[in-house]
Amino acid sequence: MLPVTAAAHRRPPRRRVLVLVGGLLLAPLPVVVLLGNERPRRQPAAGPEAEDVQPPRLAAASPAPPPPGWMPGATRKPIGANFGQGGRAGQRGLVLHVQEGEGSLFERFSDPRTRSSAHFWVSQAGEIEQYVSVHDRAWTQSAGNVDWVSVETSGFTGRPLTAAQVDAVARVYAWGARAHGWPLEVTDSPTGRGLGTHAMGGAAWGAHACPGTLRARQREAVLSRVRESHQA
User: Fold this and answer.
1) For the N-acetylmuramoyl-L-alanine amidase domain, which residue ranges apply (predicted)?
2) What is the pTM of this model?
3) CATH number, domain containing residue 135
4) Omega before 44 cis (within 30°)?
């Protein structure tokens, strides 16, 4: 055995490889295999900083305020018929009505054949829909359309407003008090100001008993909610 010198140790080993070309086996060619000290570098382990980085999210734009005469927070569903543009002589307050039925009145008030509408509708669950700007005349209480805003409440004359309806009507009234100066008081006169009823208009308003005794008596509860919201 020959002694291994330092030079021989550093000499890269040679391997012979058979080369196949066109189906013929050629003479083996020497191939040099380099054995270096350098090893393949490991990829660094993924740490928290290597996780997918999400691009910064842009802050959501604030919703645009509703047009004048439309209540913020109410579901705005403008109808295309059954109301008069402008012509409001003043803002005396809000007139309470009863629907004598259930479900949104949007489809009914959108039908030109009904020739009726209201500014607002409140469901028994407290949902608020607005159909007409309070700067326009809804066709609700005949001669009272010029001075008053109207709200229909889902349900029937023989049943009181639900707690959710009391709160919702209070929200409508609180907005009207802030935006249009409605006084925090009950009224039973068509020439008064405050929270009234359809019945107070008598024959000039169609001679209706709407919204019935039970709901008429709940007006003070509505105003109590409004006062609480003003104090909060």
Assistant:
1) 81-212
2) 0.73
3) 3.40.80.10
4) no
